[in-house]
Design a protein that fits this description.
The structure holds two protein chains of two kinds. By secondary structure, chain A is an alpha+beta fold. Chain A has helices at about 1-10, 10-60, 65-75, 85-100, 130-140, 180, and strands at about 105-115, 120-130, 150-160, 165-175. The relative contact order of chain B is 0.09. The chains are: A alpha+beta, B alpha+beta.
Chain lengths: ~180, ~160
Amino acid sequence: MIAQVLQRLNRREQILAGLVALVVFFLANLFLWSWLFRAIGDSQVEVAKRKQARNEQTVLLRESDLWSKREQWLREHQPVFHGASDASALLDQLKQVAGKYSVLIENPAIGNSPAAGAYQSVFASIETKSPWPPLVHFLYDVQVPDAFIVFESANIAIDSSDPTQMRGKFKIARWYAPASAAK
Amino acid sequence: MRQVRREQWKKRLVVAGIVYGAIVALALIHLGYLKFRERQLDRQIERDAPRTVFVRAAANNWKALAPAIDPHFYPIEILLHLFDSLPSQDVRITAYNQSAREISVEGEANKAALAYQFADKIKKHPDLQNFTFDMQSPRILPNDHAQFRLEGRPR
């Protein structure tokens, strides 16, 4: 069909038709390849992004057993908040430990802290006066992982009037399970 | 003769057309594979998303509770490591301050070099790597002792 049409054309018309065909072919290629390269480039970027996300996911999933155990440990050990009376119980506990090592407690105060996402808390503020070794024992006994006790602030300094004594000023809190976890 | 040459050119054009078509087909197959891989990864990511969300939440929760459950943040542990790092008896810690996650240490050394030595040892202590420590230039006292202050912030 095309051959018949071409044979009917004279030499100059054939050259012109060839040129037109070449230009159309060139333009069609330009469109096709620019689309293809752009589509391939975009897809490669998308695949690379997803591969990275997947790799991060794989690392997290590899640790999922560890995090499940930690979450379970928190559920089992983080104390449940009973109310404002917990602050006084905390202070009693601190007094008991201080008494054990003859650490003098001064200016005690208690209160509730505003709830944070991972916990709700009560605190006791105390000032202490004692030699260094009993203070060390006091600090050691007060804080263990399953007690959920935090030194929200601790200031320790040598007593200016008696260099054998240490002065401590502490804000000690207990971090209870958040209200959402207790339900 | 002219007819033969024309036939040869036709054959060449057909071969070129086939090669060109194959290249286009390969590019399309590559694109198709990339789209397939994209969807496959999407499905995998979507399938495991709930477990990943759980792990992230648990890790964030653990991090938030670190001052209560991670002994690396306990004052007694930090003090122990600070005393471990004293280069000699000529360096003394005179005050220690800690908030839930930040610490500062004040002290006095017989020479400024000892204060720097102490700071270096703290920075390299393996159990204090949760913090980055900075020390300002020590203040030289009239008796030539150096008074220093180190500040540690969580990494």
